[in-house]
Design brief:
This protein has a 7-stranded mixed beta sheet. Strands 7-8-9-10-11-20-21 form a 7-stranded mixed beta sheet, with helices on one face. Strands 14-13-15-12-16-19 form a 6-stranded parallel beta sheet, with helices on both faces. The protein has 14 helices and 22 strands. Helix content is 32%, strand content 22%. The longest helix has 28 residues. Helix 4 runs antiparallel to helix 5 and helix 4 packs antiparallel against helix 8. It is α/β, with parallel strands linked by helices. Helix 1 links the parallel strand 3 and strand 4.
Length: 460
């Protein structure tokens, strides 16, 4: 068996790893690279293989940095199965369509403002054909994805339908078990179940997004959210929350619902200004079978995401109307890293107002507007215009859907306890500083660790 590390190698986005065995080629994820437009576009345009050479794709979850290049793969000739969970398939249906729409709109804009037209990576038809190739598999049910190769999905506790994957590869009578963590969630997150352990691995591919950081507890994050809401409302300001439409938005709505029921925040309007988040919420509501039934609100409330103060905007006109409203309010809008979407309009109109708060609730990759806000740059560029950043900036890592360094170590230790033959841990999906810090921590616990660069190949 050969593993080639292609995407999310020494960086966070573009998750894609290539497994070759018995003359077959399998992809673990096929994600979109994000960041600097020119650099990411160049990366996204080229695969290090021909699409028709791929025999199977195993998809961990629907986030665009893990699934976002699948329509390009299909467009270039892939006609095999994309294996995933049922909830991932339903989320990918809306997310890939949204990604295609953004690609097409960006291409139209760039063609109007540049001499050379820049075509989209794929279009809506490609997204539809991609979802048609997806087959939903229940958790803990092994499925043969290629001859002598089986995949088993285990709940990763990251977003709805997310999975870690155990890939069992048999060559010449010997079976090697490859554990792919994908994105590991956190215990105690709202709605989704806690991460479940894999068992008996020989090789591990482990994410490292927060490999050098500790998170606030989930319960503590909810309390901090309540404080930020109260303080912003007291100033008469707006709480602007850039949030990923899938996962983070639903967790925030859930937590605000809890805080309201507990009378820990004032009764101010809550606007979900993201068509994708609205559609994603409907997918969540369609999959209660994967909710965490240990949570009180899940057990006692039929409508987790629909209550009297929350409104879901339907069109651009409604979104623009929010800028004419007065008084304190909460606006949750995509995109999470502030690179696109309706959050940009709210930043343009609200980042210069010291009464407002911008609440960061997720990871902000290098070279994104979100990272510049986290760094509290005095001037930020929105739609090419300079906007003073006078709003308060609060950072709330307790809502991260990624495990921190100690939670990653705990996840790995649970796996190692059943894996006497564990040979190697490869760190992916992390910036250099985070990976190096986590590698040192894991090595101090006796693990053999590598941080592969793009194109690194290993054999087992």
């Amino acid at each position: 068996m050969e593993i080639e590390f292609y995407g999310a190698a020494r960086e966070v986005t573009g998750s894609c790893h290539i497994v070759r065995t018995n003359g077959r080629t399998i992809l673990l994820d096929c994600g979109l690279f994000q960041g600097h437009r020119k650099e990411s576009t160049e990366k996204n345009l080229r695969f290090p293989f021909r699409a028709e050479e791929i025999d199977a794709v195993v998809l961990s979850h629907a986030h665009i940095d893990h699934a976002g290049r699948l329509p390009l793969l299909v467009r270039e000739g892939y006609n095999g199965t994309i294996w995933c969970t049922a909830a991932t398939r339903d989320l990918a249906d809306i997310m890939l369509a949204d990604s295609a729409h953004i690609q097409e709109k960006d291409a139209e804009y760039l063609s109007r403002h540049q001499r050379e037209a820049v075509p989209p990576l794929y279009d809506g038809e490609d997204a539809i054909r991609t979802v048609e190739r997806m087959v939903g598999v229940p958790y803990h049910q092994a499925v043969e994805v290629a001859p002598s190769v089986t995949a088993t999905f285990v709940d990763a506790g990251h977003i709805l339908g997310s999975a870690s994957v155990m890939l069992e590869v048999t060559e010449n009578g010997k079976t090697t078990r490859l554990a792919f963590s994908a994105d590991v969630g956190r215990s105690g997150l709202a709605i989704v179940r806690d991460p479940q352990p894999l068992e008996r691995a020989d090789v591990v591919i482990l994410e490292s997004t927060y490999g050098n950081r500790d998170h606030e507890s989930v319960a503590g994050a909810r309390e901090t959210l309540g404080r930020v809401v109260r303080e912003t409302a007291a100033r008469g300001g707006r709480l602007l929350i850039p949030a990923f439409a899938v996962g983070r938005t639903q967790e925030l709505v859930y937590s605000l619902h809890e805080l309201l029921l507990a009378e820990k925040i004032p009764r101010i309007p809550i606007f979900i200004d993201s068509p994708l988040a609205t559609r994603a919420t409907a997918v969540f509501e369609a999959h209660p079978e994967v909710f965490d039934r240990t949570e009180d609100l899940v057990r006692t409330t039929e409508k987790l995401f629909q209550f009297d103060l929350v409104s879901y905007t339907q069109d651009v006109a409604e979104s623009k109307r929010l800028n004419t409203l007065h008084g304190p309010m909460i606006i949750i809008a995509a995109a999470g890293m502030m690179e696109s979407g309706r959050i940009l309009h709210h930043l343009k109109n609200g980042a210069d107002d010291p009464r407002n708060t911008i609440l960061i609730v997720g990871f902000m990759a290098e070279h994104t507007l979100g990272r510049r806000v986290v760094e509290r740059r005095p001037i930020i560029k929105v739609f090419g215009e300079e906007v003073p950043l006078r709003a308060r900036v609060e950072i709330l890592n307790g809502y991260s859907a990624h495990a921190d360094r100690n939670e990653l170590l705990e996840w790995l230790d649970r796996l190692e306890s059943t894996s006497p033959e564990l040979q190697h841990v490869f760190l992916v999906h992390g910036e250099t500083e985070a990976q190096d810090a986590l590698a040192g921590q894991l090595e101090s616990h006796g693990y053999t660790v590598s941080c592969p660069t793009p194109g690194t190949r290993v054999h087992f």
